[in-house]
Amino acid sequence: MDIKDFICELIFQNKAGHLSKVTAEKFSISRQAAQRHIKQLVNKGILTMSGSKKGAQYKLAKIAEESKTFALSPEITEDFPWRTFVRPLLDNLPDNVLSICQYGFTEMFNNAIDHSGGSSVWVSVERTSYNIKLIVSDNGIGIFRKITHDFKLDDELQAILELHKGKLTSDPSRHTGEGIFFSSRMFDCFVIMSEKLYFSHTLTNEDWLLEGGNPIKGTYIVMEIRNSSDRTAQSIFNEFASVDYPGFYKTIVPVGLARYGDENLVSRSQAKRVMARVDKFKEVLLDFKGINEIGQAFADEIFRVYRQANPQVNLIPINANEAVKWMINRAATSEKSLLKSIL
Q1: Helices 19-27 & 3-12, crossing angle to 10 degrees?
Q2: Is the distance from CB of 268 to CB of 298 less than 8 angstroms?
């Protein structure tokens, strides 16, 4: 990555604070030299600058921004807004990026048609010389509330955990429940906002769940991808799906989403929330990122009780620290090779 791409990447990731300092340190150049590169990007119209020089704020310059509202009627299909509005705004993109945009947009618009219960969908397309941003926002019941109601879950936080696992659909005859799972992994950044909940999944597998703020009516989805991405839709399908197993066979479960607030993961009921519906998969990656410790009952419920009852499901802990590994190994004393699979 050259200097100018690095600068754009920092801004894309919302890490533009002390831009010239960070750039200078990265490339072992002076801050004045880094500032010259930033100024060149501004002069070329790639970046915009606001504020004074000392407190300047930089953004990727928009080269196109269009929005349109579509009424949700029995006649509308997801390919209509894609074909008539979105696709004409995405010329000169690599085929792989265009394919990902088509998949994500049509899947999210179709969800609004079939599940939102709303009357309209607002669509936005934003382009810079570095990335594409697509927004699909409906005025319906809200995705987390809908899932909580349809599946009789305890609350909307549990709905997010179930949504993250994939294969979640209230209408299996018409939907596989794969759209959000795969879309969230194709795009560099995938965000869902509804009511007072904000859930984000990024390319680096960082999951953020925030509560509070002004409530958002309906469901607001943001999908962003770099113009230069070499990812393909097929590569994501291949990572999680197989022709030898129905649907997709592998999922990732962020264990931290089973927590409420800052509580510790110690109980069997918490473990059961983590493991709900994972018997639909052949391979389950349990992501312990950000988990400092787990309790004996929590570990026992997953790595002894559940494994004995569901031997067909391959449980693979990842991102576990030494304390978590120790507790997992203690619970699975009969599985001598388990620790070898902990990454």
Answers
A1: 140
A2: yes
Give per-residue pLDDT as tens, 174-199.
666 788 989 999 999 999 999 989 98
Q: CATH for 63-236, among 3.40.50.300, 3.90.1580.10, 3.30.565.10, 3.40.50.11720?
A: 3.30.565.10
Structural domain spans, the chain: 3-59, 63-236, 249-341
Q: State the Cα–Cα distance between residues 67 and 65, nearest whole angstrom.
A: 7
Mapped onto helix, strand or coil, the DSSP state of residue 200 is strand
Q: What is the mean pLDDT of residues 299-303?
A: 96
> For residue 200, which phi and psi values (nearest 5 degrees)?
-130, 140
| Model pLDDT for residues 110-163, shown as the tens digit of each residue | 999 988 999 999 999 999 999 999 999 999 999 999 999 988 988 888 888 898
Q: What topology does CATH give the domain 3-59?
A: Arc Repressor Mutant, subunit A (1.10.10)
Question: How does strand 250-254 pair with strand 207-226?
Answer: unpaired
